[in-house]
Specification:
With about 45 residues, the protein is an alpha+beta fold. The chain contains one helix and three strands; from the N terminus they run βαββ.
């Protein structure tokens, strides 16, 4: 999943939490710094 997220709860944060529970890899883009992070939650 690719998401632009400001790190605050609600909205995109809720969808990201759901994707993580499904074991999906999440690519996050910070809208303020444009930093790109990969969050691989596969155990």
């Amino acid at each position: 999943m690719l998401a632009v997220w400001n790190g605050k709860p609600g909205g995109a944060g809720n969808i990201l939490s759901f994707a993580r529970t499904l074991g999906k890899t999440v690519i996050l883009i910070d809208p303020n710094t444009f930093e790109v992070r990969t969050d691989s939650n596969k155990d």
